[in-house]
Amino acid sequence: MALLIPVLTGLLVASVTVLRAPSAAAAAPLTVAQAISSQSGTGTVVGYIVGEPTATDTVRFSSFIGDTALAIADSAAETSTSRMLYVQITSSYRSAFGLAGNPSNVGRALTVTGTLTAYFSHAGLKSPTAMTFGGTATTSPTATAGPTASSTTDTYYAAALGKSGSSLKSALHTIVSTGVTTISYDAVWNALKVTDQDPANSANVILLYSGISRSKTLNGGATGNWNREHVWPQSHGDFGTANGPGTDLHHLRPEDVTINALRGNKDFDTGGSAVSGATGNYTDADSWEPRAAIKGDVARMVFYMAVRYEGGDSWANLELNNSTANGSNPYLGKRSTLLAWHTQDPPTAAERTRNQVIYASYQHNRNPFIDHPEWAASIFG
Ligand SMILES: [Ca+2]
Ligand SMILES: [Ca+2]
Fold first, then answer.
1. Which residues partner with 59 through β-bridges?
2. Residue 17 neighbours by CB distance under 10 Å
3. What is the mean pLDDT of residues 60-83?
4. CA 203 to CA 357: how far, in whole Å?
5. Is the overall model pTM greater than 0.85, yes or no?
6. Is the N or C terminus of the chain more exposed, i.e. has fewer CB atoms within 10 Å?
7. Residue-wise pLDDT tens digits, 246-263
8. Which bound ligand lies closest to the C-alpha atom of 343?
9. Distance 215 CA to ligand 1 centre (A)
10. Residue 213, pLDDT above cutoff 60
């Protein structure tokens, strides 16, 4: 029995470590204290919302007057402004995070990514690129899916950390193109049954645009079936379905046959008429607007494609541009709209889990823009 105790203690420690891992997966979050002491570059910070800063040394803890700034701290009970980080709330985040409109947000955990720089002449974070409630992923699927600790993704991205712009893109291209396993187009069917399984019903997959849960067994080409949607259309670069971009799980998703055909090879942009059978999606002659919950997912999928495929192999150099008339050119638009969608709809735990499953079980490469949302603006902004 005496021998068992250290073993059990060891197991407990190991369990705790595994459960903690997902919370650190996104971008090695900083504490508020760390963010206050390293006011440079971009970073992801986790803290508790404590109030609304109105001046360098003044924070309101109630009776809020605006939606443009937050004070966060490592303790939800913090009252000293010297231990708070002042966070700018830009327009797209105000309705959800502003305290005048949402006073009950006080006390909630916040994960925010942005530029670590003075705000109100105080340690701050400005120009956020992602803001979510909670300390990032806390669900268990990623805990069992494999290594997602920050140390692991930091190792994966080691050659990219600290870079920006074209040098960041170049480093990421090498990282996501090295040691990759490609799968056949036929193997994509079974892979999607795993990567896109309905978390509430293991017999079903979730269809990307329509959001419908449908039986895994209804894969095929008939009306009422689901098939393999290429979020980066095959014709934009003419890559077909040989092992490569046409079978890359990072942008392949299940979709209803009819809805898939309606999307066709359109570029992405806002506007158009509501799509029958896919609530929240809109389309017109030259563009497709996905529903709100997947706008960011779509953006990050095509960001990945533009970095993964650079023309140095047998495939076209895929690139984003601001056109919605790309036809069969190896380009996809509209870059500015996709960047806005990426900001509006930051990565969720489910999206991170999908990335991890592709990495661990299929392709052995990752989508960097799910792990490091702040890299999108640096490369495509
Ligand atoms: Ca989403
Ligand atoms: Ca490219």
1. 53
2. 11
3. 90
4. 18
5. no
6. N
7. 999 999 999 999 999 999
8. 1
9. 22
10. yes
